[in-house]
Write a structure and sequence with these properties.
It is a single chain. With about 300 residues, the chain is α/β, with parallel strands linked by helices. The chain has a single domain (about 45-295), classed as 3-Layer(aba) Sandwich (Rossmann fold). It has 10 helices and 10 strands. It has helices at about 10-20, 30-40, 95-105, 125-140, 155-165, 170-175, 200-205, 240-255, 270-275, 285-295, and strands spanning about 5, 10, 45-55, 60-65, 75-80, 110-115, 145-155, 185-190, 230-235, 260-265. The strands form 2 sheets. It has an 8-stranded mixed beta sheet with strand order 3-4-6-5-7-8-9-10, with helices on both faces. It has a two-stranded antiparallel ribbon with strand order 1-2. Helix 8 (about 240-255) links the parallel strand 9 (about 230-235) and strand 10. The longest helix has 16 residues, at about 125-140. Residues about 1-10 have low confidence and may be disordered. Keywords: Hydrolase. Pfam families: BD-FAE.
Length: about 300
Protein backbone atom coordinates (compact mmCIF):
# COMPACT_ATOMS: atom_id res chain seq x y z
CA UNK A 1 0.00 0.00 0.00
CA UNK A 2 1.45 3.38 -0.96
CA UNK A 3 1.58 6.46 1.22
CA UNK A 4 -1.63 8.50 1.32
CA UNK A 5 -1.91 12.23 0.72
CA UNK A 6 -5.32 13.70 1.30
CA UNK A 7 -6.93 10.31 0.71
CA UNK A 8 -5.10 9.70 -2.58
CA UNK A 9 -2.56 6.89 -2.82
CA UNK A 10 0.92 8.25 -3.47
CA UNK A 11 1.63 5.26 -5.71
CA UNK A 12 -1.29 6.28 -7.91
CA UNK A 13 -0.07 9.87 -7.98
CA UNK A 14 3.41 8.79 -9.03
CA UNK A 15 1.97 6.78 -11.88
CA UNK A 16 -0.26 9.68 -12.91
CA UNK A 17 2.69 12.08 -12.88
CA UNK A 18 4.65 9.81 -15.21
CA UNK A 19 1.69 9.44 -17.57
CA UNK A 20 1.06 13.19 -17.66
CA UNK A 21 4.73 14.00 -18.27
CA UNK A 22 5.48 11.24 -20.76
CA UNK A 23 2.41 11.49 -22.98
CA UNK A 24 1.42 14.19 -25.46
CA UNK A 25 3.27 17.42 -24.67
CA UNK A 26 3.64 16.56 -21.00
CA UNK A 27 3.03 20.17 -20.04
CA UNK A 28 1.33 19.32 -16.77
CA UNK A 29 4.00 16.89 -15.59
CA UNK A 30 6.42 19.23 -13.81
CA UNK A 31 3.62 21.00 -11.95
CA UNK A 32 2.20 17.70 -10.69
CA UNK A 33 5.66 16.48 -9.68
CA UNK A 34 6.21 19.76 -7.82
CA UNK A 35 2.98 19.23 -5.89
CA UNK A 36 3.85 15.63 -5.04
CA UNK A 37 7.33 16.65 -3.89
CA UNK A 38 5.96 19.34 -1.57
CA UNK A 39 3.18 17.11 -0.27
CA UNK A 40 5.48 14.19 0.48
CA UNK A 41 8.55 16.02 1.80
CA UNK A 42 7.39 19.49 2.79
CA UNK A 43 9.21 22.76 2.18
CA UNK A 44 12.44 21.67 3.91
CA UNK A 45 12.55 25.28 5.17
CA UNK A 46 13.34 26.41 1.62
CA UNK A 47 11.70 29.71 0.73
CA UNK A 48 11.47 31.79 -2.41
CA UNK A 49 13.44 34.97 -1.67
CA UNK A 50 12.90 36.77 -4.96
CA UNK A 51 11.25 36.36 -8.35
CA UNK A 52 12.28 39.04 -10.80
CA UNK A 53 11.64 39.81 -14.44
CA UNK A 54 14.87 40.53 -16.28
CA UNK A 55 14.30 43.17 -18.92
CA UNK A 56 11.22 43.75 -21.03
CA UNK A 57 10.14 40.19 -21.82
CA UNK A 58 8.04 38.53 -19.08
CA UNK A 59 9.45 35.10 -19.96
CA UNK A 60 12.97 36.05 -18.88
CA UNK A 61 12.97 35.60 -15.12
CA UNK A 62 15.07 34.55 -12.15
CA UNK A 63 13.60 33.14 -8.94
CA UNK A 64 15.88 32.69 -5.92
CA UNK A 65 15.38 29.92 -3.33
CA UNK A 66 17.33 29.16 -0.17
CA UNK A 67 17.06 27.99 3.40
CA UNK A 68 17.29 30.68 6.09
CA UNK A 69 20.72 32.27 6.33
CA UNK A 70 21.99 32.61 9.86
CA UNK A 71 23.92 35.61 11.12
CA UNK A 72 27.57 35.16 10.31
CA UNK A 73 26.97 32.27 7.91
CA UNK A 74 29.41 32.09 5.01
CA UNK A 75 28.09 32.74 1.48
CA UNK A 76 26.69 29.64 -0.17
CA UNK A 77 27.45 28.21 -3.61
CA UNK A 78 24.84 28.87 -6.26
CA UNK A 79 23.04 26.63 -8.75
CA UNK A 80 21.35 28.28 -11.74
CA UNK A 81 18.81 25.74 -13.02
CA UNK A 82 17.09 25.96 -16.41
CA UNK A 83 14.00 23.91 -17.29
CA UNK A 84 13.45 21.80 -20.38
CA UNK A 85 10.51 21.58 -22.76
CA UNK A 86 11.90 21.43 -26.28
CA UNK A 87 12.52 25.21 -26.29
CA UNK A 88 8.77 25.65 -26.84
CA UNK A 89 7.14 25.14 -23.44
CA UNK A 90 7.95 25.13 -19.76
CA UNK A 91 7.56 27.36 -16.72
CA UNK A 92 10.28 27.76 -14.07
CA UNK A 93 7.56 28.15 -11.42
CA UNK A 94 6.79 24.43 -11.86
CA UNK A 95 10.30 23.40 -10.79
CA UNK A 96 10.18 24.25 -7.12
CA UNK A 97 11.00 20.60 -6.44
CA UNK A 98 14.48 21.19 -7.86
CA UNK A 99 14.95 24.27 -5.70
CA UNK A 100 13.82 22.45 -2.55
CA UNK A 101 15.96 19.39 -3.34
CA UNK A 102 19.18 21.35 -3.81
CA UNK A 103 18.66 24.32 -1.50
CA UNK A 104 18.06 21.88 1.37
CA UNK A 105 21.66 20.72 0.81
CA UNK A 106 23.07 24.19 1.44
CA UNK A 107 22.89 25.82 -2.00
CA UNK A 108 21.22 28.98 -3.18
CA UNK A 109 19.15 27.97 -6.22
CA UNK A 110 18.08 30.25 -9.06
CA UNK A 111 15.34 28.98 -11.38
CA UNK A 112 15.48 30.71 -14.75
CA UNK A 113 12.96 31.35 -17.49
CA UNK A 114 13.69 32.17 -21.13
CA UNK A 115 11.89 33.07 -24.34
CA UNK A 116 10.32 30.14 -26.16
CA UNK A 117 9.33 29.23 -29.72
CA UNK A 118 7.46 30.64 -31.64
CA UNK A 119 8.26 33.98 -29.96
CA UNK A 120 11.98 33.26 -30.15
CA UNK A 121 14.53 31.04 -31.87
CA UNK A 122 18.26 30.40 -31.48
CA UNK A 123 20.17 32.16 -29.97
CA UNK A 124 17.47 33.79 -27.81
CA UNK A 125 17.56 31.00 -25.21
CA UNK A 126 21.31 31.49 -24.76
CA UNK A 127 21.06 35.26 -24.57
CA UNK A 128 18.36 34.93 -21.91
CA UNK A 129 20.32 32.48 -19.77
CA UNK A 130 23.36 34.76 -20.04
CA UNK A 131 21.17 37.60 -18.79
CA UNK A 132 20.09 35.47 -15.83
CA UNK A 133 23.68 34.49 -15.04
CA UNK A 134 24.76 38.13 -15.16
CA UNK A 135 21.90 39.09 -12.84
CA UNK A 136 22.87 36.27 -10.49
CA UNK A 137 26.51 37.35 -10.50
CA UNK A 138 25.54 40.92 -9.63
CA UNK A 139 22.78 40.23 -7.10
CA UNK A 140 23.08 36.81 -5.48
CA UNK A 141 25.22 38.05 -2.57
CA UNK A 142 22.11 39.85 -1.27
CA UNK A 143 20.50 36.43 -0.82
CA UNK A 144 23.47 34.72 0.80
CA UNK A 145 24.97 33.34 -2.41
CA UNK A 146 28.59 33.38 -3.51
CA UNK A 147 28.97 34.77 -7.06
CA UNK A 148 32.37 33.11 -7.24
CA UNK A 149 30.79 29.64 -7.06
CA UNK A 150 28.08 29.46 -9.69
CA UNK A 151 27.15 26.10 -11.26
CA UNK A 152 24.86 25.90 -14.29
CA UNK A 153 22.40 23.03 -14.38
CA UNK A 154 19.51 22.09 -16.62
CA UNK A 155 17.31 19.33 -17.95
CA UNK A 156 16.84 18.55 -21.65
CA UNK A 157 16.55 21.87 -23.54
CA UNK A 158 17.66 23.64 -20.37
CA UNK A 159 20.71 21.38 -20.20
CA UNK A 160 21.53 22.43 -23.77
CA UNK A 161 21.34 26.09 -22.75
CA UNK A 162 23.61 25.44 -19.78
CA UNK A 163 26.16 23.46 -21.80
CA UNK A 164 26.39 26.12 -24.46
CA UNK A 165 27.04 28.86 -21.91
CA UNK A 166 29.71 26.77 -20.24
CA UNK A 167 31.46 25.78 -23.48
CA UNK A 168 31.00 28.72 -25.86
CA UNK A 169 32.44 31.76 -24.08
CA UNK A 170 30.69 34.35 -26.23
CA UNK A 171 27.31 34.29 -24.50
CA UNK A 172 28.41 35.32 -21.01
CA UNK A 173 31.13 37.51 -22.54
CA UNK A 174 28.35 39.54 -24.14
CA UNK A 175 27.19 40.25 -20.57
CA UNK A 176 30.68 41.28 -19.48
CA UNK A 177 31.43 37.99 -17.69
CA UNK A 178 34.08 35.30 -18.07
CA UNK A 179 32.71 31.79 -18.73
CA UNK A 180 35.81 30.34 -17.11
CA UNK A 181 34.59 31.70 -13.76
CA UNK A 182 31.77 29.15 -13.78
CA UNK A 183 32.39 26.42 -11.22
CA UNK A 184 30.78 23.69 -13.32
CA UNK A 185 27.90 22.54 -15.50
CA UNK A 186 25.45 19.70 -14.81
CA UNK A 187 23.58 18.38 -17.84
CA UNK A 188 20.56 16.14 -17.26
CA UNK A 189 19.69 14.45 -20.59
CA UNK A 190 21.08 17.35 -22.58
CA UNK A 191 21.14 17.58 -26.39
CA UNK A 192 24.81 18.09 -27.27
CA UNK A 193 25.21 16.70 -30.79
CA UNK A 194 21.90 16.80 -32.66
CA UNK A 195 22.67 18.15 -36.13
CA UNK A 196 21.24 17.53 -38.70
CA UNK A 197 17.97 18.64 -37.15
CA UNK A 198 15.39 15.87 -37.48
CA UNK A 199 12.77 16.73 -34.86
CA UNK A 200 10.11 19.42 -34.97
CA UNK A 201 11.45 21.09 -31.83
CA UNK A 202 15.01 21.41 -33.12
CA UNK A 203 13.90 22.41 -36.62
CA UNK A 204 11.68 25.13 -35.19
CA UNK A 205 14.28 26.58 -32.82
CA UNK A 206 17.48 26.04 -34.81
CA UNK A 207 16.51 25.55 -38.45
CA UNK A 208 17.02 29.23 -39.25
CA UNK A 209 20.51 29.42 -37.72
CA UNK A 210 22.97 30.73 -40.34
CA UNK A 211 25.63 28.24 -39.20
CA UNK A 212 23.97 25.10 -37.79
CA UNK A 213 27.29 23.71 -36.57
CA UNK A 214 27.62 26.74 -34.30
CA UNK A 215 24.50 25.59 -32.42
CA UNK A 216 26.08 22.33 -31.24
CA UNK A 217 27.75 22.03 -27.82
CA UNK A 218 30.02 19.22 -29.05
CA UNK A 219 31.68 21.67 -31.45
CA UNK A 220 32.76 23.87 -28.53
CA UNK A 221 34.45 21.16 -26.51
CA UNK A 222 37.64 22.53 -24.95
CA UNK A 223 40.22 21.39 -22.44
CA UNK A 224 39.78 24.46 -20.24
CA UNK A 225 35.99 24.32 -20.00
CA UNK A 226 34.36 24.31 -16.56
CA UNK A 227 34.03 20.78 -15.14
CA UNK A 228 31.08 18.93 -16.69
CA UNK A 229 28.77 16.28 -15.27
CA UNK A 230 26.71 14.56 -17.98
CA UNK A 231 23.77 12.54 -16.62
CA UNK A 232 21.80 10.46 -19.11
CA UNK A 233 19.51 7.47 -19.34
CA UNK A 234 20.21 4.69 -21.80
CA UNK A 235 16.46 4.27 -22.43
CA UNK A 236 16.03 7.94 -23.37
CA UNK A 237 14.20 8.12 -26.71
CA UNK A 238 13.72 11.91 -26.63
CA UNK A 239 17.39 12.89 -26.41
CA UNK A 240 19.50 9.84 -27.21
CA UNK A 241 22.37 9.04 -24.87
CA UNK A 242 24.77 9.33 -27.81
CA UNK A 243 24.55 13.12 -27.30
CA UNK A 244 26.26 12.91 -23.92
CA UNK A 245 28.60 10.16 -25.10
CA UNK A 246 29.81 12.29 -28.02
CA UNK A 247 30.39 15.35 -25.82
CA UNK A 248 32.19 13.27 -23.20
CA UNK A 249 34.53 11.85 -25.83
CA UNK A 250 35.22 15.28 -27.29
CA UNK A 251 36.02 16.97 -23.97
CA UNK A 252 38.01 14.05 -22.59
CA UNK A 253 39.94 13.76 -25.84
CA UNK A 254 41.11 17.33 -25.40
CA UNK A 255 42.13 16.74 -21.80
CA UNK A 256 39.19 18.51 -20.16
CA UNK A 257 37.30 17.31 -17.12
CA UNK A 258 34.05 15.54 -17.90
CA UNK A 259 32.28 13.17 -15.50
CA UNK A 260 29.49 10.91 -16.70
CA UNK A 261 26.64 9.14 -14.93
CA UNK A 262 24.80 6.85 -17.35
CA UNK A 263 21.86 4.68 -16.27
CA UNK A 264 20.87 2.07 -18.87
CA UNK A 265 17.28 1.61 -17.70
CA UNK A 266 16.33 5.28 -17.24
CA UNK A 267 14.32 7.37 -19.67
CA UNK A 268 14.37 11.06 -20.51
CA UNK A 269 12.52 12.39 -17.48
CA UNK A 270 13.78 9.79 -14.99
CA UNK A 271 17.12 11.55 -14.48
CA UNK A 272 15.23 14.66 -13.36
CA UNK A 273 12.52 12.92 -11.36
CA UNK A 274 15.16 11.19 -9.21
CA UNK A 275 15.88 14.59 -7.67
CA UNK A 276 12.28 14.91 -6.44
CA UNK A 277 10.55 13.31 -3.46
CA UNK A 278 9.68 10.45 -3.28
CA UNK A 279 11.47 9.34 -6.46
CA UNK A 280 14.75 10.07 -4.71
CA UNK A 281 14.39 6.81 -2.81
CA UNK A 282 16.33 5.56 -5.82
CA UNK A 283 19.15 7.89 -4.83
CA UNK A 284 21.73 7.12 -7.52
CA UNK A 285 21.21 10.29 -9.56
CA UNK A 286 20.83 12.61 -6.57
CA UNK A 287 23.88 11.18 -4.84
CA UNK A 288 25.97 11.53 -8.00
CA UNK A 289 24.86 15.10 -8.64
CA UNK A 290 25.49 16.14 -5.04
CA UNK A 291 28.93 14.53 -5.09
CA UNK A 292 29.88 16.51 -8.20
CA UNK A 293 28.52 19.73 -6.69
CA UNK A 294 30.41 19.10 -3.46
CA UNK A 295 33.60 18.76 -5.46
CA UNK A 296 33.31 21.80 -7.75
CA UNK A 297 31.30 24.12 -5.45
CA UNK A 298 31.47 22.78 -1.90
CA UNK A 299 29.19 24.07 0.83
CA UNK A 300 30.92 25.28 4.00
Amino acid sequence: MGWWIGGISLALLLGLALVVWNTASGHGGPRLVDWIDRASAGSREVAQLANVQLGDDPAVTAAVYAQPLGKGDAPRPVIVFTHGGGWNWGDPDDYGFIARSLASEGYVVVLTGYRLFPQARFPAMLEDLATAVAWTDANIARFGGDPGRIVLMGHSAGAYNSLMLGLDRQWVADEGLDADRLAGVVSLAGPADFYPFDKESSINSFGQAPDPQATQPVNFARADAPPLLLVHGGADTVVRIRNSEALARAVAGLGGRVDTAFYPEMGHNDVLLKLASPWWRDNRVRTRVLAFLADVAPTD
